[in-house]
Design brief:
The structure is a single chain. This protein has about 300 residues and is an alpha+beta fold. It folds into 3 domains: about 110 residues, no CATH class; about 50 residues, SH3 type barrels (Roll), CATH 2.30.30.60; about 80 residues, 2-Layer Sandwich (Alpha-Beta Plaits). Helices cover about 45% and strands about 25% of the residues. It has a 5-stranded antiparallel beta sheet with strand order 6-5-4-3-7. A 3-stranded antiparallel beta sheet has the order 8-10-9, covered by helices on one side. A two-stranded antiparallel ribbon has the order 1-2. A hairpin with a 2-residue loop joins strand 3 and strand 4. The chain starts with a helix and ends with a strand.
């Protein structure tokens, strides 16, 4: 029993021995263990709060899933920030003494962590201003895909090939971003078609509109539109504009279906899709009977 008491007394001495001083506060092993345990509890509680806010509190509101996720994320960051302040104060640590540490950290950030800070601030701007949100179909830095997660440092985009790409948040602030679903959940698809000059424009327009209206993936509002775009060298260039919601993530499939349908109807109607042609003119030269060939 006496040995146990001696061991406990020695352990208490070790745990209460100051390791470092923050201002006038002595930090020992008890303080570190206290901070570690409460930090783990805070992070666990914050995760549960985020899930509850997104899936229960905001579930019956008119907010979409992306907005609910953004609100839950911002709430989680606020809870963690305030929670750490409370934990430090409850441990008896003088927060005013941390200003020196914050200054040193700021100096380090100015030298080597500019990109991390830039991505962090960009993430906050994205969550607040919401130029993109979870579920949006976007194009940025040559990538086209769906936004599946937005965090403070980076955003995860899933491409058509089911590949997840992590894009730093600063890309969405400094680079042009095309958000195909920013205002609505449908996109407009442009399908160019060239026909020969012998074709009747009214018949071409009628066939293209008929093919568009027969496709179940094409929306009737806004209605499909066909325009004669220009007079090219070898063809009359028409453009078919259609809107779709069903093919939001696979517009190439819709283009293929409409192109096949239009080609079949053109063959049935005898409408020719031309290819570039050149006329050759052969002229006799007055120099030693040489022939000169020219193309036009």
């Amino acid at each position: 029993m006496e040995l146990f008491i001696q061991f406990a007394s020695h352990a208490e001495k070790v745990l209460n021995s100051p390791l470092i001083h923050i201002g006038k506060t002595a930090v020992n092993l008890w303080t570190i263990a206290y901070l570690a345990v409460l930090s783990i509890v805070l992070i666990s509680v914050t995760r549960r709060c985020k899930t509850w806010i997104a899936e229960h509190l905001l579930r019956h509101t008119q907010l979409d899933s992306g907005t609910r996720e953004s609100v839950a994320s911002m709430t989680g960051y606020i809870i963690i920030g305030l929670g750490f302040v409370v934990i430090l104060q409850s441990a008896g640590i003088d927060l005013s003494a941390l200003t020196v540490i914050a200054g040193a950290v700021g100096l380090g950030l100015s030298f080597g962590l500019q990109n991390i800070v830039s991505n962090f601030i960009s993430g906050i701007l994205i969550l607040v201003e919401r130029p993109i949100k979870v579920g949006d179909r976007i194009e940025v830095a040559g990538l086209i895909g769906d936004v599946i997660k937005i965090s403070l440092r980076a955003t995860v985009i899933r491409t058509n090939e089911n590949i997840d790409i992590i894009v730093p948040n600063s890309e969405f602030i400094t680079s042009p971003v095309t958000n195909l679903t920013y205002a609505s959940r449908h996109v407009r698809v442009k399908i160019p078609v060239g026909v020969s000059y012998d074709s009747h424009p009214e018949e071409v327009q009628r066939i293209m509109l008929e093919c568009a209206r027969r496709n179940p993936g094409v929306l009737s509002v806004p209605a499909p539109l066909v325009v004669l775009e220009r007079f090219a060298d070898s063809s009359l260039d028409f453009v078919l504009f259609v809107s779709t919601e069903e093919y939001l993530r696979k517009t190439m499939s819709l283009r293929s279906e409409l192109n096949v349908a239009i080609l079949k109807r053109f063959h049935q109607a005898g409408i020719e899709i031309p290819f570039p042609q050149r006329d050759l003119h052969i002229k006799e030269s007055s120099v030693a009977g040489t022939r000169l060939t020219g193309a036009s």
